[in-house]
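Run: sequence + thymidine-5'-diphosphate -> complex structure.
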Amino acid sequence: MPDGRFISLEGGEGVGKTTQLRALATELGKRGIEVVTTREPGGSPGAEAIRGLLLSGEDGRWSPRAEALLFAAARADHVEKTIRPALDAGKWVISDRFLDSSLAYQGGGTDLGVDAVRGLHRFGSAGFLPDRTLVLLLPDRAGVARANERDGDEPDRIGRRDADYHLAVDRAFRALGAEEPERVRLVDASGEQRQVTERLLAELADLLP
Ligand code: TYD
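>> structure
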């Protein structure tokens, strides 16, 4: 049986992540790879229930610590119930967001810091990491932050946070790419949709069968 691979797709709001996830799954399928797509927060029945708690309600509904724990708890269930079984069956899993979202949003975006969030992941999911993480980034960070503030299609509890928060998240993603260049690849999300998909595929070239 071929080895399964776990890929996560990351980025701030409004970078076309969900469209690219679909395109990537199609391209891998054409190469004969069996692909399971999933998302966070969510991806298993228990984690989807926690998603509802995380994304609705007032911004101050959870303290930064409680919020980080809820994301870690959802992830633990997602890994155990959905991701590991698919990998064990030789499939590829592509997740719309994973740990690096928590590192950037809960770690980089608040005073908690990235190391505290890594600690929660060590406990919750035994430190389980993607084989590769693709972070979609737009060059005009301030523009992205402004777009996030202009509530487009009903942003969720976290998407509604101010431009400074989203700039800190963007900075944190870039820092993760610099810290872990082998796993975390920063990908330019500007230009034609097709070009962006090609850039993503290029970052997976060494993993393809
Ligand atoms: P998502 O459903 O991917 O929304 P979007 O289409 O805006 O990317 O994610 C929901 C929100 O949850 C998004 O604002 C990012 C946030 N989030 C975190 O803050 N930490 C996490 O660990 C994850 C997975 C998501």
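>> summary
Residues 149 and 162 are 6 Å apart (CA to CA). The chain has one domain: 6-207.
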